[in-house]
Amino acid sequence: VPExxxxxxxxxxxxxxxxxxxxxxxxxxxxxxxxxxxxxxxxKETIASGMGELHLEIYAQRMEREYACKVEMGKPRVAFxxxxxxxxxxxxxxRKQSGGRGEYARVIGVMEPLPVEQNMTVDFRxxxxxxxxxxxxxxxxxxxFLDCCEKGGYAGQRVTGVRMRLQDGAHHIVDxxxxxxxxxxxxxxxxxxxxxxxxxxxxxMTVEVNIPSEFTSAAFSIFNKRAGLIIDQDGRDDWYTITAxxxxxxxxxxxxxxxxxxxxKGEYTMEYCRYSPASPETHESVVKKFRDSLEKKDEKGKKxxx
Length: 306
Prior knowledge:
With 306 residues, this protein is of the alpha+beta class. 34% of the residues lie in helices and 34% in strands. The chain has seven helices and 14 strands. The strands form three sheets. Strands 5, 9, 11, 12, 13 and 14 form a six-stranded mixed sheet that branches. The protein is globular and about 75 Å long.
């Protein structure tokens, strides 16, 4: 069974149709192994994958016609990541006293980027020595860091390619706890988001196009329009193969574009290559979207208080 070449988000237009949507998906995916529907946990949306946009559109139409389930299809949100570009130091003192037992924890250290070949991982290192942070409290610091990496702070994307080094700190014999150090770690992370130099990473795909030779210039134009980097080209008989690296975010609509530019004769395959720093335009768009969502949350919070 060939791997799907395109994916789009899919959902029933109204909640009443959810049951019929489930029945349609179960039947169509059983009938056609190249049509797949799955839930993307990272972006919290249902994704339909298939062999082309037309392939997905046909099943969307059949859901409406055969199951009275109208669906909405759109561009799936690309799983961007965020990472740190330069080391940044942190020193956060968490203190809280409100009658009874208080909370007390101090964490000191460095947050730093990992080498490029490790840009999909995160790492935590306990470099403390002596009694300043008792070892039972260190897991709280680590969990605080890892939880922040899941949520992100700079652009609302998962953090990767970052190491947190815990070098020193302080505790109180009564008021310190793993929970207090967890909170100190999260606040230290937020300080690093504000003080550090961060960037957005985007997935890059390797795209191979096979076209009749007369459409070569049209194919180059399509790649150029989508910020594709040509890495290989080869011509045999009347056919031409072009291989390029293209940001996944720019691949939406590629199938229809290629079909339209080659009289339906062009074919392509696409597979994941790596994560790389996003273009300035994409970077700005992802960060702006996240900050706008934070502002909306703040406005809702203020309205509730009023």
